[in-house]
Write a structure and sequence with these properties.
Blueprint: H1 19-24, H2 33-42, H3 44-49, H4 54-60, H5 63-69, H6 73-91, H7 95-98, E1 108-111, H8 127-142, E2 146-151, E3 159-162, E4 168-171, E5 183-184, E6 195-197, E7 214-223, E8 226-232, H9 240-243, H10 254-279, E9 286-290, H11 297-309, H12 313-322, E10 324-327, E11 338-340, H13 341-348, H14 359-365, E12 377-379, H15 380-386, E13 390-393, H16 396-405, E14 420-422, H17 429-432, H18 435-444, H19 448-451, H20 463-491, E15 511-516, H21 532-539, E16 546-551, H22 559-572, E17 581-583, H23 589-598, E18 601-604, H24 616-622, E19 626-630, H25 633-638, E20 644-647, H26 656-680, H27 689-706, H28 708-751, E21 756-763, E22 773-781, E23 790-799, E24 805-812, E25 814-818, E26 824-831, E27 838-846
Helix pairs in contact: 2-6, 10-11, 11-12, 12-28, 13-14, 20-23, 23-24, 24-27
Length: about 900
C-alpha cells in the first residue's frame, strides 16, 4: 500500500550536537570540504548511502550513534571548530567590504527561475541554474550583498532513466521541503508568511470562482552569507490546480508557465519586502533579472512606486529601470518565453487590471513591434530589456549575437551600438574543482583561487605531480562510471550475468573524453557518430585508444532530443565498443563534478554561434583538462592555440547535413592526429611532456579568467555599482530625477519626428594626408528642442566597398551659433588618423545626464542622403 502523504520527521539532536543543525542549514557545506568531512564522520557508511545529503544523514542516523558522538570529545572539538569557522566566514569583511566605493549597492536582488546549489537541492535543469548557483556562492565568498529569489519546485527537475531499448524515461520524485536545508519564513508571531498575487475572477482552475488569487509561502535557504528566498504555492489556501503551479521546473503549458513567472517576478518582489521587513535586511537598490522568466518583477516595482510614492507610470518606469540589470542567456529566439497577447490581456486586464499598471502599458512592454517581430506574441526577454537600463550577454560572442537578435529595440542604430554588453560567465572553484586539486593549489600556488593572481606559478610545478593527480581523478571517474553503468543496466532489466562486462568497462589509463550537457538539437550530441566506423576505429585503436563518457538529459517534451539519446545509447551498447563509450543517465551536479574532474578532454560541438557561453569546459580546465571545441561561447573568446584544440566550424553552409559532415570529419582528424598523439607521446619517465605543457599553459592562462570571482567582480564594477548610482539619482529628493527624466523623454519623443539634419559640408578633403583634420559644419533643425537636449556627432572611420563605416569613432560637434528659422549650426574637426578608404557621416541623438548611453531611447536623426562624403586614398 502506498502512503497518501509523504513528510520528513527531523531528528532531535542531543544538546552537545546542536551545532550540527546550524551547519546543515547553511549550504556552505556544499563547497566546504572540512564540513563535509565532519558529516562523513557522523556515520561513514550512512553518508555514502544518503549520497552525501546531510539532511538525510541526520534524519536517518541511529539515536545510539548520536548519543555516542555526544560523548566523543574529539568529535565535539571538530564540531566546535567547524561551527566557529562558519561564523567567521559569515561575519569577517571580504572583498566587497574592502572596496572604497560609495556607489556600491547595499543589496542586490537576484532573480532566477532555477538554481544549481547542490544535488541535494534539485532545483535546476541545466546551465542557467548552475550559473545562478555559482553566482550566489561566489557572492557569498566575496561578500557581495546579494539576495536570491526563485521558486521551490515540489518535484524539481526530472530524474532520468533508460528503457530496455534506450529511450529516455522521466520520473519526478516528490520533494518535502522539511527534508531540505530550508526554513519557513514566518512573521514575528510565528505565522507563516503568505505572498498573494491577484488573478482574474472566474479563473476557477487556479484562482477559484471568486478570484481569491494565488498564494505562496516562502522558504529560506542560506547559501553561505547569501539568503535565498524560494516561493512555494503548495499551501492549503490554494485549490489543487493552484497548489500545482510550483510542481515542477519548466512544466505545464502556457497558463501554467505564465503563472510560474508571475509568481517569480511579482511574488518575488513581495517576498523580498516581507523578508526585509521581518529581518531588517537592507532593501535592494539593484534588481538583477537572470533571463526573461522573472521579467514581471519590473511591473511590480512600477506598481509599488505608483501606489506608494505617487509617481505616474512613466516616472515609475524610469525609477525602476535605473536600478535594473537584465542578463540574457539565449542566442536563439526559440529559447525565449513568448506568450499569446490574449493570455497576457486575460491575466493583467479586465477585473485583474490595476489602476497603477494599465494592461495596454503591460502589452507594450513585451510587444515585438519592430521589423521582423511577431505582433501576436508577448516576449518576456523584450519586456525584460525594456524594464532594464543595463543589459548583457554571457560571453563576448553572445553579446554580439544578442545585439543582432534584439537590435530592433533600438532601431536606427548600427548593431555595434545596440546597448547590450557582455560579461563572460565564470565557475565557482570550490564547487567544481577536485579537492585534491584545491589542496595542491593551496600548497603550491597560495591564494590564486581567491585573488585570481599568481597563476603563472603553475609553470614551475612538477609535471610528475600533475600527471599523478590527473591519473587519480581519471580512476575515480572510471570507478563511479562503472557503478552508474551497472545500476542503469540492471534498471533496464539486465541480469547479473549480462552485466559482468562492466567490470572492465573503461580503462583508467586510456585517454578519456567527456561530453555532457542538455540535449537540444543544436548541441549535436550525435555529431561524433556521423561516421560510426571511423568512431569505432578511434575507440579501438590498438596503440592510441580513446574512451568517451557521455551524459545528458532531453527536455521531456523534446522527442527529437530523446531520439538522439537513444541513438547514442544503442551505439554504446554494441559489444565491440561498449567498454570504450558509455552513456551515464541522470546527469546532475554530482555526475557533472566527477566528469569535469576526471576527463582528460572536454568536447563541445554546438552549431556556432548557438552556445551562449557554456561553462563545463571552464570547469574541466581548472581541473587540468584540455578543451576540444567549436569556437563558440567562451571558447571563441579565450582559445589561444595552446590551451586545447578548436574544431573548425563550417559557418554559412546552408545545408545542415553537409555542415555536420565537414565538422565531424574535422573532429575525427583532431582526435586521431593531434589529441591522442599528444596524450600517448611519452618520455622515458612515462610522462606526456607536450600534453603536460599544454595543461600548465591552460591553467596559467585560463585560471584567472574562468573563475566566477572574476565574473562577479565584473558585475559589481560594470553593472551593479553604476545601476545603484543611477537608481539613487532617480529617487533623490522625492524622485525628482525620475520625474524630470520622464518629462524630458516625453518631450523629446513628441518633438523627434521634426528633428532633421538639413545641411552638411566639409573642407580639407582634397588629397588629405594622415594627421590632417577635416572641418565639418552641420545645420540641424531641432524641431523645438533645446540644444542641450541633443548631441550632434560626426561618425567617421574606415569604410568598406559599399561605403559602410566599419568600427567608426564619434566626435561631438560644438554648438557654434544659431542659423536661420530657429535652426542651429554645429562645427568640429575630424582627425584623419589612418590611411586608406575613409568616410564620415553625422547624426543627432538625444542627450541627457541620466541616460545610460546615446542609444538608450533608440532615437537617431540622420542626413537624408550621403553628403560631404569623400572616399579615397588618404596618404
Amino acid at each position: 500500500m502506498k502512503a497518501i502523504r509523504r513528510f520528513t520527521v527531523r531528528t532531535v539532536l542531543p544538546e552537545p550536537l546542536r551545532q550540527l543543525e546550524e551547519l546543515v542549514l547553511n549550504l556552505r557545506w556544499s563547497w566546504h570540504h572540512e564540513t563535509l568531512d565532519l558529516f562523513r564522520a557522523v556515520d561513514p557508511a550512512l553518508w555514502q548511502a544518503v549520497h552525501h545529503d546531510p539532511v538525510r544523514l541526520l534524519g536517518e542516523v541511529a539515536p545510539e550513534r548520536l548519543e555516542r558522538l555526544a560523548e566523543d570529545r574529539r568529535f565535539l572539538r571538530r564540531l566546535q571548530d567547524t561551527a566557529e569557522d562558519l561564523r567567521e566566514y559569515l561575519t569577517a569583511p571580504r572583498w566587497y567590504q574592502s572596496r572604497a566605493d560609495a556607489d556600491a549597492p547595499s543589496c542586490i536582488a537576484y532573480f532566477s527561475p532555477e538554481y544549481g546549489i547542490t544535488a541535494a537541492l534539485p532545483q535546476y535543469s541545466g546551465g542557467l541554474g548552475i550559473l545562478a548557483g555559482d553566482h550566489l556562492k561566489t557572492a557569498s565568498d566575496l561578500g557581495v550583498p546579494i539576495l536570491g529569489v526563485g521558486l521551490l519546485y515540489r518535484h524539481g527537475y526530472f530524474s532520468q532513466s533508460l528503457s530496455p531499448d534506450g529511450w529516455q524515461l522521466e520520473r519526478y520524485p516528490p520533494i518535502d521541503p522539511n527534508g531540505l536545508p530550508l526554513t519557513l519564513l514566518r512573521e514575528r508571531d510565528g505565522t507563516p508568511v503568505r505572498i498573494t498575487i491577484g488573478l482574474p475572477a472566474g479563473r476557477g482552475h487556479v484562482g477559484g470562482p471568486h478570484g481569491r488569487g494565488l498564494q505562496a509561502q516562502v522558504w529560506v535557504a542560506q547559501v553561505g552569507r547569501v539568503p535565498q528566498l524560494l516561493l512555494d504555492s503548495d499551501v492549503e489556501e490554494n485549490e489543487q490546480p493552484a497548489r500545482d503551479i510550483t510542481d515542477r521546473l519548466y512544466g505545464g503549458g502556457g497558463d501554467h508557465r505564465l503563472l510560474q513567472e508571475m509568481l517569480l517576478g511579482i511574488g518575488g518582489v513581495r517576498a523580498i519586502r516581507a523578508y526585509c521587513r521581518i529581518t531588517g535586511h537592507p532593501a535592494p537598490e539593484v534588481f538583477h533579472t537572470n533571463e526573461g522568466h522573472a521579467g514581471f518583477l519590473g511591473l511590480e516595482r512600477i506598481r509599488e512606486l505608483v501606489s506608494e510614492d505617487g509617481l505616474t507610470f512613466d516616472e515609475a518606469l524610469e525609477a525602476a529601470r535605473a536600478g535594473t540589470v537584465f542578463t540574457t542567456h539565449t542566442p536563439v529566439p526559440a529559447g525565449i518565453d513568448r506568450f499569446p497577447r490574449e493570455l497576457i490581456s486575460r491575466y493583467f486586464g479586465g477585473g485583474n487590471e490595476t489602476e497603477q499598471v494599465p494592461v495596454e502599458r503591460v502589452l507594450a512592454l513585451g510587444a515585438e513591434d519592430y521589423p521582423g517581430g511577431d505582433r501576436t506574441v508577448f516576449n518576456m526577454a523584450v519586456m525584460g530589456m525594456r524594464l532594464a537600463q543595463r543589459v548583457n550577454g554571457v560571453s563576448r560572442l553572445h553579446g554580439q549575437v544578442s545585439r543582432e537578435m534584439f537590435g530592433g529595440l533600438w532601431g536606427g542604430f548600427d548593431t555595434a551600438e545596440v546597448p547590450v554588453g557582455s560579461i563572460t560567465n565564470g565557475v565557482h572553484a570550490g564547487t567544481w574543482v577536485a579537492r585534491e586539486v584545491l589542496e595542491f593549489t593551496a600548497r603550491e600556488l597560495p591564494s590564486v583561487m581567491e585573488s585570481g593572481r599568481g597563476w603563472e606559478g603553475v609553470r614551475n610545478v612538477s609535471e610528475a605531480e600533475i600527471w599523478r593527480m590527473r591519473g587519480l581523478l581519471r580512476r575515480r571517474l572510471v570507478a563511479d562510471a562503472r557503478r552508474r553503468l551497472r545500476e542503469s543496466w540492471r534498471q533496464r532489466g539486465a541480469s547479473e550475468a549480462e552485466t559482468s562486462w562492466i567490470d572492465d568497462a573503461l580503462d583508467p589509463d586510456v585517454l578519456t573524453i567527456g561530453f555532457a550537457r542538455r540535449v537540444p538539437s543544436y548541441k549535436r550530441l550525435t555529431l561524433m557518430m556521423s561516421d560510426p566506423d571511423r568512431l569505432r576505429s578511434i575507440l579501438l585503436d590498438p596503440d592510441r585508444p580513446v574512451q568517451i563518457v557521455i551524459a545528458g538529459k532531453a527536455h521531456p517534451a523534446d522527442e527529437g532530443g530523446k531520439r538522439l539519446i537513444q541513438e547514442i545509447v544503442r551505439f554504446a551498447g554494441s559489444e565491440d565498443v561498449r567498454h570504450r563509450i558509455v552513456f551515464l543517465p541522470d546527469y546532475d551536479m554530482a555526475l557533472g563534478q566527477l566528469m569535469v574532474q576526471g576527463c582528460d578532454v572536454w568536447m563541445n560541438n554546438p552549431l556556432r554561434p548557438l552556445e551562449a557561453c557554456g561553462t563545463s569546459g571552464m570547469k574541466a580546465a581548472l581541473n587540468g583538462g584540455l578543451n576540444l571545441s567549436i569556437r563558440d561561447g567562451w571558447w571563441d573568446e579565450w582559445y589561444d592555440g595552446q590551451n586545447g584544440w578548436a574544431i573548425p566550424s563550417a559557418d554559412g553552409l546552408a545545408a545542415p547535413d553537409r555542415r555536420d559532415e565537414l565538422e565531424a570529419a574535422a573532429l575525427y582528424e583532431l582526435i586521431e592526429d593531434h589529441v591522442s598523439v599528444t596524450f600517448y607521446d611519452r618520455d622515458s619517465a612515462g610522462l606526456p611532456r607536450r600534453w603536460l605543457e599544454m595543461v600548465k599553459h591552460t591553467i596559467a592562462t585560463l585560471g584567472p579568467k574562468v573563475l566566477a570571482t572574476r565574473m562577479l567582480r565584473d558585475y559589481v564594477e560594470e553593472l551593479y555599482a553604476p545601476a545603484a548610482a543611477s537608481e539613487r539619482a532617480m529617487v533623490a529628493d522625492k524622485f525628482a530625477g525620475a520625474r524630470a527624466l520622464a518629462a524630458w523623454k516625453r518631450r523629446v519623443r513628441e518633438a523627434w519626428p521634426r528633428v532633421a539634419v538639413e545641411h552638411v559640408e566639409s573642407s580639407g578633403e582634397e588629397s588629405p594626408q594622415v594627421g590632417a583634420r577635416l572641418a565639418v559644419r552641420v545645420v540641424v533643425d531641432l524641431g523645438g528642442l533645446d540644444p542641450d537636449d541633443v548631441a550632434v556627432e560626426a561618425v567617421y572611420g574606415r569604410v568598406d566597398d559599399s561605403d559602410a563605416l566599419v568600427g567608426p569613432a564619434h566626435l561631438e560637434l560644438r554648438n557654434a551659433e544659431p542659423a536661420d528659422d530657429g535652426r542651429v549650426r554645429y562645427v568640429g574637426e575630424v582627425p584623419l588618423e589612418r590611411s586608406g578608404a575613409f568616410g564620415y557621416s553625422v547624426r543627432v541623438v538625444p542627450s541627457h545626464p541620466l541616460l545610460s548611453g546615446r542609444a538608450e531611447m533608440g532615437l537617431v536623426a540622420l542626413p537624408p542622403a550621403p553628403q560631404g562624403m569623400t572616399n579615397g586614398d588618404l596618404r
